[in-house]
């Protein structure tokens, strides 16, 4: 019996790579155009609004100043941070709980000083605290 051998072709398969760069750029453009980026919306915050404005009597107001080096002044008298809670508590008792504490801080004051002041006001049980701001162009 005669065996017939098939001849195997030993040809190289060529894949055309000339248009690979074009395809890569087209894919890149496609993904850039169709990609959706998540936009960070931030913290949802509901700010309070006022229906009416009440004038605060001068005797019911305590202005607390904080400078850039962390020194505290209450009613234009410098006091150590440790005494703030005692002084504010006494003023709150004098005003029968109507005391409003206004904090005015230097714009260069570090947040740590303001945080310490808030902790002292919390110890003094001061519940009516406002942050004062200067109107653009005004002094003091």
UniProtKB/TrEMBL annotation:
Gene3D superfamilies the UniProt entry points to: 3.30.420.270
Keyword Transport carried by entry: yes
GO CC, any one term: plasma membrane
Keywords, sorted A to Z: Cell membrane, Membrane, Protein transport, Transmembrane, Transmembrane helix, Transport
InterPro entries reported for this sequence: ExbD
One of the GO BP terms on file: protein transport
A molecular-function term among this protein's GO annotations: transmembrane transporter activity
Main location: membrane
Compartments it resides in: Cell membrane
Recorded topology in the membrane: Single-pass membrane protein; Single-pass type II membrane protein
Family membership: Belongs to the ExbD/TolR family.
Protein name: Biopolymer transporter ExbD
Organism in which the protein naturally occurs: Candidatus Mcinerneyibacterium aminivorans
